[in-house]
Automatic annotation (TrEMBL):
This is Protein disulfide-isomerase. GO terms for cellular component: endoplasmic reticulum lumen. One of its GO terms (biological process) is protein folding. Participates in the folding of proteins containing disulfide bonds, may be involved in glycosylation, prolyl hydroxylation and triglyceride transfer. Disulfide bonds join C58-C61, C395-C398. It is found in: Endoplasmic reticulum lumen. Its EC number is 5.3.4.1. Keywords: Disulfide bond, Endoplasmic reticulum, Isomerase, Redox-active center, Repeat, Signal. The lineage of its organism: Eukaryota, Fungi, Dikarya, Basidiomycota, Agaricomycotina. It comes from the Eukaryota.
Length: 512
């Protein structure tokens, strides 16, 4: 989820705006409201408490609010507290905790904070904080039936004792993934027998797909890395709805991701999903399958090179190189059609769809405008040094960099046969498969030296001086001096003010 950044300069103004709205008195809440004076006395004694740092005007905070309230009410029975801090009213407190955007959630244990990395929906918050409240491995006895249903995926080791192999390896696995899964250990023979399990064994219980799955390899020789891969695969359903809440699970998987875009208002939505499910089950070892709300995430469909606003639609994306393989929408999404497309993808016979704007008829500016169709021709020209900015039109950092990048182009305009200052709108143009990197944030700035196809990352600040220094340090060609031009003092170019210099942190954007 993206967050709303803030500036301390405008906090006072925002506070007056919020107060002016005249909100009605708040309803009774199970979420504690903390201030500078009450923060330490409320947080430090708690062995576990979740704190949200928010701003009343923040849209993401407003969306989170009902889920946060619901989670607080549910977790109250488990003696886990949720609290919030209004950063408009308590700006210094929020800054002292390193808050740079809204909402920021932190888990505190006796006053020591760690970042909250869980979901933003009520059930996800409850699940995450419940895991945080438990030891990495819980001993399971009479509560076996309840424990194996306590989360979407529960991992239970059935062992002779807590010291027998592979207890140490299992504990290490649980400690590493305590935020992801719920782990338990059974050493009682009667409990194991009632569960129809012969120790030693490792069993996963799920609330979806096959409810019970036993680890297929010898548990006595358990290897953490192998079990990790097994669990990650089991954590992904045969087919599920993808949204901002779970997209990271798929993005972090090495498997390609197959999307079925459907209009959720269509009466046959479920039958469309059911049509894909046998294919998803057949090829689960090769691809992950999801269905997605085509109305809510229509822009993501465009990003995946689906040309028409026509649903359903099917597309496969390689998560490693970001190549996209949309199924021709005229063919429909019948089971046989989709199955054939998947088999051809796995067999390597499909060609990726590469989006490109038209090649410009002229290049009148000092900065060369690159499009997808001619990326290789321009950027891989071994006779030239190429410095390219990959940007997005909507990106604020890119907008601030634009005049500086133009100045950089002007500086080397006399030597275009030696060094090319270039730019490409990366949301409208795909990088070809031959490019050894993908764009994950904007702006992405790369330098390709003459005589090479390797790229050097630019990680300095975005001032003209720093950019010029970087070019001079990395060019392979000899750049001739610029011709001298007599310029009246009153017409001389004025350097950009300091506030135009932007830190090098990337601005990320994800349609999901």
């Amino acid at each position: 989820m993206r967050v709303s950044s803030f500036s301390p300069v405008v906090l006072a103004l925002l506070a007056s705006v919020v107060r002016a709205e005249g909100d009605e008195p708040a309803a009774p809440s199970d979420v504690l409201t903390l201030t500078t004076s009450s923060f330490e006395s409320s947080v430090n004694p708690e062995s576990l408490i979740l704190v949200e740092f928010y701003a009343p005007w923040c849209g993401h905070c407003k969306a989170l609010a009902p889920h946060y309230e619901e989670a607080a009410t549910t977790l109250k029975d488990k003696n886990i507290k949720l609290a919030k801090v209004d950063c408009v009213e308590e700006g210094e407190l929020c800054q002292s905790h390193g808050v740079q955007g809204y909402p920021t959630l932190k888990v505190f244990r006796n006053g020591t904070p760690t970042d909250y990395t869980g979901p933003r929906k009520a059930d996800g918050i409850v699940s995450y904080m419940t895991k945080q409240s438990l030891p990495a491995v819980s001993e399971v006895k009479d509560n076996h039936a309840e424990f194996i249903k306590a989360d979407k995926l529960v991992v239970v080791a059935y062992l002779a004792s807590t010291t027998d192999a592979p207890a140490a390896e299992f504990s290490a696995l649980a400690e590493k993934h305590r935020d992801d899964f719920l782990f338990g250990v059974v050493t009682d023979k009667d409990v194991a027998a009632a569960a129809a399990v012969n120790p030693p064994a490792l069993v996963v219980y799920r609330s979806f797909d096959e409810p019970t799955t036993e680890y297929p390899l010898p548990v006595s020789d358990l290897k953490v890395a192998e079990v990790e891969d097994w669990l990650k695969d089991l954590a992904i359903p045969i087919i599920d709805e993808v949204s901002g809440e779970n997209y990271g699970t798929y993005a972090n998987s090495p498997k390609p991701l197959a999307y079925l875009f459907v209009d959720p208002t269509q009466e046959d939505r479920q039958s469309l999903i059911d049509t894909i499910k046998p294919i998803a089950k057949k090829f689960k070892s090769k691809l992950n399958f999801v269905w997605i709300d085509a109305i809510k995430f229509g822009e993501h469909a465009k990003a995946l090179n689906i040309p028409d606003v026509k649903w359903p639609a099917f597309v496969i994306q390689s998560m490693e190189d970001q190549m996209k393989y949309p199924l021709d929408q005229a063919l429909g999404t019948a089971e046989a059609v989709v199955s054939d497309w998947v088999e051809r993808f796995i067999g390597g016979s499909l060609q990726p769809s590469l989006k490109s704007e038209p090649i410009p008829e002229t290049q009148d500016e000092s900065v060369y405008t690159v499009v997808g169709k001619e990326f290789e021709k321009v950027v891989f020209d071994e006779s030239k040094d190429v410095f390219i900015e990959l940007y997005a039109t909507w990106c604020g950092h890119c907008k601030r960099l634009a005049p500086i990048w133009s100045q950089l182009g002007d500086k080397y305009a006399h030597a275009k046969d030696k060094v090319v200052i270039a730019k490409m709108e990366a949301t409208e143009n795909d990088l070809p498969p031959s490019v050894p990197f993908r764009v994950s944030g904007f702006p992405t700035i790369k330098f390709k030296p003459a005589g090479s196809k390797d790229f050097i990352d630019y990680e300095g600040d975005r001032s003209l001086e720093s950019l010029v220094e970087f070019v001079e340090a990395n060019v392979k060609n000899t750049i001739p001096p610029a011709p001298k031009v007599e310029t009246p003092a009153e017409d001389a170019q004025v350097p950009l003010e300091a506030e135009k210099v932007v830190p090098a942190a990337e601005e990320t954007h994800d349609e999901l």
